[in-house]
Design goal:
single chain, 431 residues, globular, Acyl-CoA dehydrogenase, acyl-CoA dehydrogenase activity, flavin adenine dinucleotide binding, AcylCoA_DH/ox_N_sf, oxidoreductase
Length: 431
């Protein structure tokens, strides 16, 4: 196997790094997050038009570049280095894969070219804080005994119908505890009558780019208790009546969130009415998103480490650079090892997405530790909220809250790999 990057992949990295070095420095990032969209719309259009960034992993038949997860991950490694605020992650790594996997031919033809061109942005709206669970990154627990039982039964049926482990856990996921479970809360869907239309009601409080996206892919519960299932629905924000959106305050301003309220809002079912297919598509999208996020976090960790090394080389105490002190060297050496391990794991996950969960855990941990070291090694100025080191520290914390935590990512990966069995008393034991 040749693991070296191709000339095309190297060119993607080089071009994007040069462009972001000119237009996405710390001051430009702070200015961009204060706009209504939460990102620099002019820069986004340039990235879409000149580099085809949102269409990297979209098939050429639908106006995309026709590359794969590896190219998208490489691009996101560079956007991570600059902490670029943009709708790239939500559009290209969450919404586009779901539309590609589940959408009808008419839906793909109508939506994917606009997503690839950057003229339409999209995101995945999941109720509550269940995004990582919905994507299969940290588990698929339904949340209470009744729903767990329903999920187990559905899992057995789905396993018989679809076959294999994927069908089994997909059916268990169809218990839909994180999507409302047929009870109050979450987002509910009901048929509107007529030409297969649907109506949504409920809310999702933490939707990535939810305040600005032109298209929402909404996970909603339907069917009530007898046919309990969660499906995905399309909501066009410019034309949907009964949709209320507001930007939320977030720890990391470069990851803006929106609160979405659906008040009898018209929606279109994405694909077919199949909870098993929906769950499988969400799991696949979760692996893609995790691989992309791992590369992005590795890029951010590498960038903040480089900035810290530059600082300790220039900052002097007692007549010598603080970087010459052995204790400082040891701390930076440890951080360097973490960053390189995270980068290697991210590259492997881009090639083999089944390892994406572990790669994401490695990268998030590397970013958290490295950014914390950056704050400390910058000394008094590093502890001020306005210093750029805090941009990286807040990104590390917010990403782990949204897609982690790290120990749950690793626990999920361990169970999927069969490293634990259930003992007689119902307790997990190591194999």
């Amino acid at each position: 196997m040749d693991a070296a990057f191709t000339a095309e992949q190297d060119e993607i990295r080089r071009t994007l790094r040069e462009l972001l070095a000119k237009h996405s420095g710390p001051e430009e990032v702070r200015a961009a997050v204060r706009t209504a969209e939460g990102y620099d719309a002019v820069l986004w259009r340039r990235l879409a038009r000149d580099l085809g960034l949102p269409g990297l992993a979209i098939p050429e038949a639908y106006g995309g570049v026709g590359c794969g997860t590896a190219e998208l991950a490489l691009a996101c490694e560079e956007t991570g280095r600059a902490l670029l605020p943009s709708p790239l992650l939500a559009t290209a790594a969450l919404a586009a894969p779901l539309i590609t996997a589940l959408g009808t031919e008419a839906q793909r033809a109508a939506l994917l070219p606009a997503l690839a061109a950057g003229t339409l942005t999209a995101t995945l709206a999941v109720p509550g804080t269940g995004l990582s669970t919905a994507l299969g990154l940290t588990g698929d627990e339904a949340g209470d005994e009744a729903v767990d039982l329903a999920g187990d039964v559905a899992g057995d049926v789905a396993g018989d119908v679809a076959g294999g482990e994927a069908g089994g856990w997909a059916g268990g996921w169809a218990g839909c505890g994180w999507a409302g479970g047929g009870r109050a809360g979450g987002v509910q869907a009901r048929p509107a009558g007529g030409e297969g239309g649907w109506r949504l009601y409920g809310e999702a409080a933490q939707v990535l780019d939810g305040h600005s996206a032109g298209l929402l892919v909404v996970a909603a519960h339907t069917g009530g208790f007898p046919r309990s299932r969660t499906l995905l629905f399309l909501v066009h924000t410019k034309t949907a009546a009964g949709l209320v959106r507001a930007r939320q305050t977030s720890m990391d301003e470069t990851r803006p969130f929106g609160r979405i309220e659906l008040r009898d809002t018209e929606a279109e079912l994405l694909g077919v009415d199949s909870a098993v297919e929906t769950a499988a598509a969400l799991a696949a999208a979760g692996r893609t998103a995790a691989a992309v996020l791992a590369a992005e976090a590795a890029g951010a960790a590498a960038s903040v480490l480089e900035r810290t090394v530059g600082h300790v080389k220039a900052r002097e105490q007692f007549g010598r650079a603080i970087g010459s002190f052995q204790a400082v060297k040891h701390r930076l050496a440890d951080a360097y090892v973490r960053v390189q391990a995270a980068r290697s794991a991210a590259y492997y996950a881009a090639w083999d997405p089944t390892a994406a969960g572990l790669a994401l855990a490695q990268a998030l941990e590397a970013l958290r530790v490295t950014s914390a070291e950056a704050v400390q090694l910058h000394g008094g100025i590093g502890f001020t909220w306005e210093h750029e080191a805090h941009l990286y520290f807040k990104r590390a914390t917010a990403d782990e809250l949204l897609f982690g935590p790290v120990h749950r990512l690793r626990d999920r990966a361990a169970h999927q790999a069969g490293l634990f069995l259930t003992g007689g008393a119902g307790q997990a034991v190591a194999v």
